[in-house]
Amino acid sequence: MNWKKKPAIEPQLLAIPGITEEEAESIRQADIPNATRFQEALDDGDVAILQGLHQRTGLAPERLAQLQANWLDVTYQPLKGPIIRRYWADIFLASVLLLLALTAAWPWIRQASPRVLAAAEIPAFTVIDQPQLRIAGNVSADQATEMFSHFNGKYTRTLIRKDDPIPVEIDSFRKVSLADRTIVRLQAKNLPRIEGHSRPQNVNLIFSSRIAALGAIVPALLLDLDSDSSTITVALSAEDIRETAKWLGNSDLYMALKSP
Fold first, then answer.
1. Band of the pLDDT at 1, cuts 50, 70, 90?
2. DSSP codes joined into one string, the chain
3. pTM of this prediction?
């Protein structure tokens, strides 16, 4: 006689204590057919997972966490002592709700922290001066001076709009003067990697003529490098601009980094 093993019967969603038929149907519509799959979907206790399931079911994250705690209280009871069994699901639910609250509050918490903002629009490749900055948040005069000092004399690589935060990457740049220099963007070949080199960086522009065995080396100050488009943004003196202009259009450009 052949005996076939009966498939395990998964508990229905309505077996979750406190769940309504409407809630169970919403969860089923999210391709979660039973209580076991519901628990598996939320097993990591991650707030992002709760938020994702909220989008799929329309049920509030807090309600989903409550239903999860109710189901855990049933399924995990035999594994726990009487005191833990009585309160552990409540502790679990409180932890998840706290995470949800902190996640929701984080934008306001972050906004409340003192930050350096642009007091006016700052164009790309502009050296920053203190009048261009302001601080959002309550700080002392000494703290404000310290916060401004991280950005004074350094330059922006992109446009910063009024009231936008100053990008933290600028803090790592060296101070620079762009007075009497012209900023140009050039197409170059075989750009080197710039890891380990601070910015701005002194470089040599190497022009190799396509017409004759001629060339030139022009010193420049590297402000930005885009490997994807093979473009560099450099600051050149008036004399170096004139020299560069002689070679554009009839030569290939390479860039050589100097020692960091």
1. very low
2. ---PPPPPPPPPGGGSTT--HHHHHHHHHTT--SHHHHHHHTTT--HHHHHHHHHHH---HHHHHHHHHHHHHHHTGGGS-HHHHHHHHHHHHHHHHHHHHHHHHHHHHHHHS-EEEESS-B-TT-B--GGGEEEES---HHHHHHHHHTTTT-B-SS-B-TTPBPPGGGGGSPP---TTEEEEEEE-BSPPP-TT--SSEEEEEEEEESSSS-EEEEEEEEEEEETTTTEEEEEEEHHHHHHHHHHTTSEEEEEEEPP-
3. 0.53
